Amino acid sequence: MANPNNPLRKLNAAGQSVWCDNIHRAMLTSGGLLTMIEDDDLRGVTSNPAIFDKAIGTSHAYDALLERELERDRSQSPRDLFFALAIEDIRDAADAMRPVYEKTGGVDGMVSLEVSPDLAHDTEATLREARELHARLGRPNVMIKVPGTRAGLPAIEQLTAEGINVNVTLLFSVERYAEVAEAYLRGLERRLAQGQPIDRIASVASFFISRVDTLLDPMLAETRPDLQGRIAIANAKLAYQRYKRIYGGERFEALRAAGARPQRLLWASTGAKNPAYPELLYVEELIGPETVSTMPPATYEGFREAGTVAQTLEQDVAEAERQVKALAEVGIDLAAAADRLEQEGVALFVKAFTNLLHHLEAKAARLAA
């Protein structure tokens, strides 16, 4: 029987959905994912190229699937092979999460698969691949991850208008988040104008946390050490205030009346990368309703063991505003920092994806031999 004092279950009860930022074939074949759903009230799963690179490139768990794909068609490229493996994982995870999807009325129970990161600056290619992945997955509780780049914005709008669930990833600034929300609203409005239903569309905007401090902390070391480890949280708190204004306004009210749901903010990059910071800093400081926290395995397990649940997201908002404004006083341009983080984030995912394809190519050659 599930422990009612499990902090992860308490986090869900507080209005913040717990998702896990990890997927691996072993989670699916061992029953580990089902145990997390039953014991922890897990509400969703996210993936990215780095997660798949680690899962596929460093284990033999995918060898049988890879052999099966090679027997089916030896002419497949490493990219084809990757998506064949990834789609099987995402489908199986979505099937495991389906009862959560049904129980929450389609709010949670979601599993995300990202378009190829090397398409981040190509709107049309992103649209083509997102549609193809959505069709191949064939599950109502999957989200297609699309980077929130300039090129991603029109893709987010179009996919929403087509009724495809979108997880917008790599968001670092409040301004870009607002542009993403605008794209989502336009997509809903277009779909509604076409007489199409909008009541089963789910979307999240993945706002990255710890990477902001990782970049800014060294810049603050000399001038404002008191702000080290604080800007990422302050930035997220201000994004949530913008969320409340957008989805509490008249424009969304008309969509809500037709069954639309807000595009929830999802806190990503929640693991503390600085060992001097508390392990659960970026989870415990950002707890609030109508949000999602996706946690890497170590953070997830740490919160399960010792997490503290309190409504922190709207505490000290005025202080968060002062902290962000203080950056300009010491010559730090937060918008420029966010642009840099977006570029670096895309580059890191492209690198992980390239490594993954090389691993697959080498593994396929070994299996063929």
From TrEMBL:
Pathway, per record: Carbohydrate degradation; pentose phosphate pathway; D-glyceraldehyde 3-phosphate and beta-D-fructose 6-phosphate from D-ribose 5-phosphate and D-xylulose 5-phosphate (non-oxidative stage): step 2/3
Subcellular location: Cytoplasm
GO molecular function per UniProt: transaldolase activity
Catalytic activity reported: D-sedoheptulose 7-phosphate + D-glyceraldehyde 3-phosphate = D-erythrose 4-phosphate + beta-D-fructose 6-phosphate
The keyword Thylakoid appears for this protein: no
EC number per UniProt: 2.2.1.2
Family from the record: Belongs to the transaldolase family. Type 2 subfamily.
NCBIfam families xref list: PRK03343.1 (NF002881), tal_mycobact (TIGR00876)
InterPro entries in the cross-refs: Aldolase_TIM, TAL/FSA, Transaldolase_2, Transaldolase_AS
Protein name from the UniProt record: Transaldolase
Primary location recorded for the protein, binned into one broad class: cytoplasm
Coiled coil location: 303-330
Gene name of this polypeptide: tal
Function field: Transaldolase is important for the balance of metabolites in the pentose-phosphate pathway.
Family annotation (SUPFAM superfamilies): Aldolase
Superkingdom, taxonomy of origin: Bacteria
Catalytic center residues: 145 (schiff-base intermediate with substrate)
Keywords recorded for this protein, A-Z: Coiled coil, Cytoplasm, Pentose shunt, Schiff base, Transferase
Lineage: Bacteria, Pseudomonadati, Pseudomonadota, Alphaproteobacteria, Geminicoccales
Organism, as annotated: Benzoatithermus flavus
